[in-house]
Amino acid sequence: MATPEDTSQDKAPGGAQRGRNGVLMYLAGLFFAVVLTLASFWAADAQSVWQPGIPVLLAALAIGQMGVHVVFFFHISSGPGDTNNFLALAFGIFVVGLVVFGSMLIMSNLNANMLPMDRLMEMQR
What we know:
- It contains four helices and no strands.
- α1 runs antiparallel to α2.
- It is elongated and about 75 Å long.
- The termini are far apart.
- The longest helix has 30 residues.
- It folds into two domains: 60 residues; 46 residues.
- It is mostly helical.
- The relative contact order is 0.09.
């Protein structure tokens, strides 16, 4: 057990690894990030993918890309030592989702209440 004066057990948030294992983690993350990026470019231009399904595929690849960054580069896991980091990340994702969903809701409501273009042009004459 570490005493208050003992700093040998101190670790930076996220538990970043040092040495060869840390480099291998970063290289694995880089590999997965490049593969997912290339897959996204392929999916956007592919003719063999059902066209209405392309946005869903791109969203899935983007979520995978975010997962790669969180695990391999931010070193955030659901382990007992990373509980606060994990909860902060979950709360941040929740807030961003709320802002995006609320913005989409407001924009769709504004779009539904807009005058049709022909009526708008009549009013300007």
